[in-house]
Specification:
CATH class of the domain at 3-242: Alpha Beta
Largest sheet: 9 strands, mixed
Radius of gyration: 23 Å
Structural class: alpha/beta
CATH architecture of the domain at 3-242: 3-Layer(aba) Sandwich
CATH topology of the domain at 3-242: Rossmann fold
Number of strands: 28
Shape: globular
Distance between the termini: 60 Å
């Protein structure tokens, strides 16, 4: 069953159940089905045919799943683009993806007018993405919906349409933590494969369960876990269009979602809010975390928060990448690592010669299963696959191991390994030495442009710099000589990219430019 048919089966089974909640406004499954149908007719009316490309430049609003499934139903290729991408990059991604039509909110269009010049653009109502305090002002702004011949105000047309029998792929972009955002072609049946895999590790209750959908749908983690799996199982998506620190916790406590899918930054945000520490959290069934390395200390602190709130959940850490849609395994929360592969997936670790590693031996992580991408969009020469024993594996470029209990333990990305004075240095060994300290929030080891080993650290609360220096220096002096950083830099907050992941490129620029924003810098 392709993704759209699975959602439509929920429309037939639970028509009056709530499918989407956004800013306390509800959309039933019956209404969702009708809107998908109308959007598909609208796209056809605008000349979108099979293989045409439609850019969805949308936050987590109801229009996102509506147009995503509408594209699938008519055989169009949905291309997901971050709605707050800078203008020059927006143009680059649209050019790179060869889009035929863009769908975006009316409130964001003026910002991208130049980047989208010459393209057909459909504007949808974006007032739900605005803070309530300024939402009323939106209607006082001059209308841009009827200016020009290449822009349309989306309205629901009437008619009928048949779901395409052979849907085209959809395209996600990699998060670009290493610089380049690669277009990744994925089939819609990868969404259903993930849904089937997740039903084996959760206990879904249709019409009762709900997901706090703060992870963006334009990325695999949000699309696969927070949107499609929920809608394909008859659950409710609680849509969070924007990450607003002052409203996110009240929204969470009011809506009482049974599931949380998060990146580490969201867990930190929850932990900072005193309201979370006195709230009843018994409604939370599962907490999944991934996207980047999740420090053990953060997991422990959030588990305490859950336990004190009378929740039976624990943080379950997953591992995956956009090339595999999202997670391919997840821990049970009881042991270190990222757990065992989901049913139908296979995870192996190989050495530099392509031979399988023994348990506890580090090597490159390879992934096989029904969740693999077809390939990179427009990059014919990029082939990240390898064949072994008649199976097709994706080469992750991540280094890890399988422990004695069969769980995957991710160690680091291969391109994060540092070479200092001829010695290979695992940055995680340096980072772990300080992350165990109570006042340390984040730590990353990098090389500056002169080849020196640097450690960048952010702290949870303001303390005297001399006390912080003493606290950090102690454990670092116990490391091997070539593991000791030549420069230690203290900053307020780590920069984040569009996916709320740590922006390593920004950190590299920071250590090379030595900005005035540094709290402190010293050497061992």
């Amino acid at each position: 069953m392709i993704a759209i048919r699975r959602v439509l089966s929920m429309v037939e089974k639970y028509p009056k159940a709530i499918a989407l909640t956004c800013n306390h406004q509800h959309t039933t499954y019956e209404e969702l089905g009708r809107q998908i149908h109308s959007a598909a007719l609208f796209l056809r009316k605008e000349g979108i045919k099979e293989n045409h490309r439609v850019a969805l430049i949308l936050p987590n609003l109801p229009q996102f799943p509506v147009f995503f499934y509408a594209c699938e139903s008519i055989g169009a290729i949905a291309v997901m683009i971050h709605p707050l991408t800078i203008g020059s990059k927006m143009k680059l991604l649209c050019d790179q993806s060869r889009i035929d039509l863009a769908v975006m909110t009316d409130i964001l269009y003026p910002k991208y007018r130049q980047a989208l010049k010459g393209r057909r653009v459909v504007l949808v109502d974006g007032k739900d993405a605005l803070p309530k305090s300024i939402r009323s002002l939106h209607f006082l702004l001059p209308s841009i919906l009827t200016i020009g011949t290449l822009r349309y105000r989306y309205q629901e047309p009437q008619g009928s349409i048949e779901v395409a029998q052979d849907p085209q792929p959809f395209i996600l972009f990699s998060s670009g933590t290493q610089g380049l955002n690669k277009g990744i072609r994925l089939r819609h049946d990868t969404l259903d494969a993930l849904c089937d895999q997740l039903t084996r590790i959760i206990d879904p209750v249709p019409t009762q369960d709900s997901m706090f959908a703060i992870l963006p749908f334009f990325h695999g983690f949000g699309l696969g876990i927070s949107m499609h799996t929920v809608l394909a199982l008859g659950g409710r998506c609680i849509l969070i269009p924007r990450l607003a620190r002052n409203t996110i916790v009240p929204e969470f406590l009011k809506e009482k979602p049974t599931y949380i899918a998060a990146v580490p930054q969201l867990l930190r945000l929850f932990l900072k809010d005193p309201r979370m520490h006195t709230a009843d959290l018994s409604f939370v069934k599962n907490v999944f975390c991934g996207g980047e390395a999740t420090p053990k200390k953060l997991i422990e602190e959030f588990n305490v928060l859950l336990r004190n709130g009378h929740s039976q959940a624990v943080v379950q850490v997953g591992y995956g990448c956009t090339e595999t849609l999202t997670a391919v395994c997840v821990s049970d929360g009881m042991a270190d690592g990222c757990g065992k592969a989901f049913a139908g997936n296979e995870i192996i670790v190989v050495d530099e010669h392509g031979n399988r590693c023994a348990d506890e031996q580090a090597g490159e992580i390879l992934i096989h299963g029904p969740i693999l991408m077809d390939g990179y969009d427009g990059l014919r020469d990029a082939d990240p696959f390898v064949s072994m024993d008649g199976k097709r594996y994706f080469r992750s470029a991540d280094i890890g191991k399988i422990d004695a209990n069969g769980n995957l333990v991710v160690l680091y990305r291969r391109d994060h390994l540092l070479k200092i004075n001829g010695y290979f240095v695992d940055p995680h060994e340096i980072e772990d030495a300080v992350l165990s300290l109570p006042d340390i929030k984040e730590a990353i080891a990098l090389q500056d442009e002169e080849g020196r080993l640097c450690l960048i650290v952010s702290v949870k609360q303001h303390k005297r710099q001399e006390d912080i220096k003493k606290e950090i220096t102690g454990p670092l002096e116990t490391l091997d000589r070539w593991y000791r950083p030549k420069r230690i830099l203290l900053i307020h907050e780590f920069p984040k990219n569009e996916m709320k992941k740590t922006d390593r490129n920004a950190l590299k620029r920071l250590i090379n430019s030595r900005p005035n924003g540094l709290l402190a810098e010293w050497s061992l």
